[in-house]
């Protein structure tokens, strides 16, 4: 089936993309809403503009719409994006990286139902520990670019999700952290994953951390051969 | 105890969403689980329970495969049909489908004689609901029957998706059915 993948550049949407390809679907485009409000309810925000470079590294067309990121208009922004993808790329459905969020899943399902699009959530209800370990096994290179919870301090910003980092996240589950960050504890940025034509290297970035949360603001990247 | 989980999905990619979570719950409930696909499974001899999965909202391919599931009517073990699975179970027992879309959290009120909680919140994702047929309705949303039972058998249907917010209902049902 010809599909678009809702793409935030984080580990979950990149894994959804990978699984969608692995099951034989034709990926027509990556779809990103660019919220101009860092408090967006539906959409991933830190470093979202770099999804354009990630899409080039993956080698799939990238379609975006801007959103004011207000709760009441975000669903309409998503509808605009998906309608545009239907028109320009002839997509029959979308895949998402939703794991737990009923809020997000419900809104995507409603918009797609109205447009007659199929929805695929291949990570839905996935065990978060298994999910993290699978990222590593498959060779995903993932950077932590946002921390928004107690026990995740400034040192996490810019850290690679390698085996020790993943085991540490899993051990934090005892302290109420959802290991894959489904509670909004963590945001990630993927540098490389299976099937990508190029890898991303972050060449300039700055951690911004205050009052127990922060982001790694990426200022420049370059694309390298895999 | 052995459970057969039958995927009603037309697309493999949907199975990760609608089948894998049911497999996990059945395993946590103490069952050895085997996976089958609609159209390929012709019986469930040797199994204690059969679970029928839901499907993507646009996926009605299972309706073309109804003939391959008629054996379920007489299956002596336990059956749980989720969403599309409940529709299949209901159709096998003379019910009909009608258009009824619910997407998102909804509240279920259970009948007084039902073993379910009196009221509970569930995640619904369906475009068709069931009516009529030889079924006992154990719980309903404001729009339609959400939990049904085949009288005299341990065959249940849940139109909502218990794997999303109510996995304990599946475990309880499988446990109670043991």
Helix content of chain A: 25-40%
Helical segment tally of chain B? 5
- Major beta sheet of chain A, specifics? 5 strands, parallel
Tell me the Rg of chain A in angstroms. 16 Å
Distance between the termini of chain A: 28 Å
Strand order of the largest sheet of chain A: 3-2-1-4-5
What amount of the residues of chain A lies in strands?
Answer: 25-35%
The two chains with the largest interface, and their residue counts, are: A-B, 26 and 23 residues
**Total individual domains of chain B:** 1
Biggest sheet strand order of chain B reads: 2-1-3-4-9-8-7-5-6
CATH class of the largest domain in chain A: Alpha Beta
Describe the structure.
The complex is a heterodimer of chains A (226) and B (178). Chain A contains six helices and nine strands; from the N terminus they run βαβαβαβαβαβαβββ. Chain A has 226 residues and is of the alpha/beta class. Chain A has two domains: 119 residues, HUPs (Rossmann fold); 96 residues, Alpha-Beta Complex (putative n-type atp pyrophosphatase, domain 2). In chain A, helix 3 crosses helix 4. Chain A is globular, with a radius of gyration of 16 Å. The mean pLDDT of chain A is 91. The model of chain B has no long low-confidence stretch (mean pLDDT 95). Chain B is globular and about 35 Å long. A nine-stranded mixed β-sheet of chain B has the order 2-1-3-4-9-8-7-5-6, sandwiched between helices. Chain B is built from five helices and nine strands; from the N terminus they run βααβββαβββββαα. Classes of the chains: A alpha/beta (226), B alpha/beta (178). Chains A and B meet through helix 4 and strand 5 of A and helix 1, helix 2, strand 5, strand 6 and helix 4 of B.
